[in-house]
Amino acid sequence: MKIEVDVEQFARDIKAGKGIGGSDGALSFLIKQLTEAALAAEIDSHLAQDLTKNRKNGYSSKTMKSSDGAFELDVPRDRNGSFEPEIVKKNQTTMSDEIEKKILSLYALGNSYSQIAKHIEDIYCVGFSKGAISAVTDKILPMLQEWRVRPLEAVYPFIFLDAIHYKVKEEGHYVSKAFYTVLGVRVDGKKEVLGLYLNESEGAKFWLQVLTDLQHRGVKDILIASVDGLKGFPEAINAIFPDTQVQLCIVHQIRNSLKYVGSNNQKQFAKELKAVYQAFTKEEAALELDKLEEKWGTKYPIVFQSWRRKWENLSVYFQFPQEIRRVIYTTNIIESVHRQFRMLTKTKGAFPNDESLLKLLYMGILNAQQKWTMPVRNWSLTLSQLAIHFNGRLDEALGL
């Protein structure tokens, strides 16, 4: 097939300021001719190798979408129907995966289907319905499922567990569901989201299922788990990983305490509370807690009841050096992941189903993990301290 190029028109377009490629590019008209020329060469090669009395049998036409806009493509046919083109396969309607990649990248940034459709039309002059965009994003689902059941490492020095809540449609009405996030720090010091889980509400019973799943996927040991103050959480963790040290988040505990302190006293109380959680040793912290209770206990007994009840798990971090304390005393590391999720989902009041939520959060995790290229600060020192404190439990993972 002869490729015809209007050189004069091409020159005029370039002079007028048109780019070379793209939907309005000076060479956009060539894509149809180039593709049809390639198909013509393909069918000629196919017929030359066919030992039967096969021959060409006209064309079939279909609309193709490409980065250079939409166009009608004439696909050659053979009489026997044995011709299977490779350049453009029978059910293919997009010239390359460029548009699909653009759709997924826009989706991963939290754009709605309507916003994505407008972006794609503006860039490529190709119209995509919401259904078509949904079909593209559904291609994430097999990857998501594979990711959710992937094998995990045998040992994680740290894990952080927390939940975030979303509205999801179920049986015709919207309900609040808890999205469970498990963030691990591997032996190499790099962060990794270990899994995605959804449940009707947050509770220690479901966390037990989450931890059981981690165990089934290969996790044999967790040195330290940092969690919020959910009732029964430490017991759920130790039911599956009995040797794991469980640290309750100090920041959560402070926030919860201040909710029960009068507004006039909050500033002073918060200042004096620092002497407890910033103490050098557990014994010193216990003495400071006694002093604080002597002053404020009568006025705010519920605050000190909470600290006393949770003291065993609130005070775990005191036994470690500063490098380890800095990592485990708060769940801020996982809350920063949730902040990224909220930025991603802020334009969506609710989700039509579980899959739509999981797809978007999975894309958010992939984006986040691209940035997690460096280990936790001072990781070499932290790891050496962990190896000493948890004698022998890191040996296999470190190849010792």
How would you explain this protein's 3D organization?
The chain is α/β, with parallel strands linked by helices. The protein has two domains: about 130 residues, no CATH class; about 160 residues, 2-Layer Sandwich (Nucleotidyltransferase, domain 5). The protein is built from 17 helices and seven strands. Strands 5-4-3-6-7 form a five-stranded mixed beta sheet, sandwiched between helices. Strands 1-2 form a two-stranded antiparallel sheet. A hairpin with a 2-residue loop joins strand 1 and strand 2. Helix 7 runs parallel beside helix 8 and helix 14 packs across helix 15. It starts with 6 loop residues before the first helix and ends with a helix. Keywords: DNA recombination, DNA-binding, Transposable element, Transposition.
